[in-house]
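Quick start: what a row looks like.
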Amino acid sequence: MTTNSLKDKVCLITGATSGIGLETAIALANMGATVIVGGRDLERASNAVIKIRTASNNPNVDFLLADLSDFVEVKRFAEEFKQQYKRLDVLVNNAGAIFKEYDENPQGVEMTMALNLFSIYLLTGSLLDVLQHSAPSRIINVSSMVHKLGKNEFDGFNDESSYKALNSYALSKLGLLHFNTILSEKLQGTGITSNAMHPGWVKSNFGSGFYTGFYGFLDTIFKPVQISSQKGAETIVYLASSPDVEQISGKYFVKNKAIPSSSASYNTSSSDYVWELCRQQTGFQYNFQEKPVDMGKKVEDSKDAKTKKTDDDKPSDI
């Protein structure tokens, strides 16, 4: 459905050349937004722009290219955006991946954490000034229910000898929830909200190189219950556009509803630790009055450490 509810709004969506990113871009373009597609490949990004313009009849769609696992590229990407656009109303941090084998980005950081967590910290921080200028504005961080498999053990993330793809992916998505928590706290009073979400088990090409053997068997068995990319994008679109969540920040959404994330994600010591880890790995400091965190202090698992509880901190069925 085409509306003008986002007319004059600028939306940047990373990882938007396919899957839920592409469907999000189409939906926001249908609402009249100016949409910028973030992608790595020129041909795929160009094709995505054509699809979005055609599906939405909205000519205000363009792309920017970068390999967001590379921190130098992230900084260039942010600067190019700010040179071309004077406002940013919605930032969707959707780009992410799972890597079957251990690999490192050009800065020597394990690829899963580099792309799924550290680059999001860096890109969001690099665009914070234009988000502030455009307030009220929104940040949406695409996490995963797989975060529930993660433990608050971040100090060994770069250890090749202990690398396991699913563990690293879960750790990165748990880390993203910690990032979302701290960011939303620091943004109080700025007019910028930050929320995380899980899109559901989407039928897409995501992780296609990973789903082999036992995981491939499970993927095949459960394909009939997987949802479409369009369905998976619905919560992102809701968070980007609905007036119902204009004042809501720091939450974790599934199917357009805020639900509890894992108990580990409420560990305040771990949230502080992850924020400082992001700062150290990227070399980027936000323009807040930040208190240094003692990185030498071991972060305990949430069941043993003091945790931040809310009324919603109870098990969920997701």
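That is the whole record. The first strand starts at residue 10 and ends at 13. Residues 298-318 have pLDDT under 50 and may be disordered.
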